[in-house]
Amino acid sequence: MQKWIMSGLFFVACGLALVLMLSLPGKEQVAQENKPQMPEVTLSAEHAETVVATSCISCHGDQLEGNVGPNLQKIGAELSAEQLYAIINKGKGNMPAFKDRLKDEEIANVALWLAEKK
Ligand code: HEC
Questions:
Q1: Is the CB of 61 within 6 Å of ligand 1?
Q2: 68: CA distance to ligand 1 center in Å?
Q3: Architecture of domain 45-115 in CATH?
Q4: Which among 38, 58, 60, 110 is the best mutation to test ligand 1's pocket, defined by most ligand atoms within 8 Å of the CB?
Q5: Cβ neighbours of residue 39 under 8 Å, at least 6 residues apart?
Q6: Is 106 exposed, middle or buried (0-12, 13-18, 19+ CB in 10 A)?
Q7: Could you state, in order of their start, the residue ranges of all structural domains in the chain?
Q8: In terms of Cα–Cα distance, which of 102, 109, 117 is closest to 40?
Q9: Best exposed site among 3, 7, 56, 63 by fewest CB in 10 Å?
Q10: Which atom of ligand 1 is nearest to the CA of 51?
Q11: Which tens digit of pLDDT belongs to each residue from 52-96?
């Protein structure tokens, strides 16, 4: 075989390998897809209280003291904003998922607000 064909093939193979390496998702990306990504929001306590009053207190009590759902008054000491965001998004046990009822930003804001409760 002629030398230039060999080296031509070699360069094409290298190019393909490079494209594959760049296009395959890295491990980090795969991990992020399994976990809902919390949007960045600036905490608005007022807005969080409104959302909680309409969506959460029926089960968690109007002082978040607990009812059907557990007490959330010191939940920020146990769970981070990201963990809270994931629970509100997907639900947990008998708690319904809120991803179709609230906007992502609203859930993130409530998560931030609850994370401050320590
Ligand atoms: C229909 C009743 C109901 C509603 C409405 C509800 N929850 Fe819950 N929630 C529960 C129950 C029941 C649990 C306990 C789930 C379990 O651990 O199995 C729970 C658990 C939680 C937890 C986890 C507590 C822990 O210690 O792990 C958080 C955080 C939470 N709820 C936040 C909220 C927020 C914020 C809202 C409003 C957006 C809300 N919940 C609305 C019933 C509800």
A1: no
A2: 8
A3: Orthogonal Bundle (1.10)
A4: 60
A5: 104, 105, 108
A6: buried
A7: 45-115
A8: 109
A9: 3
A10: 38
A11: 999 999 999 999 999 999 999 999 999 999 999 999 999 999 999
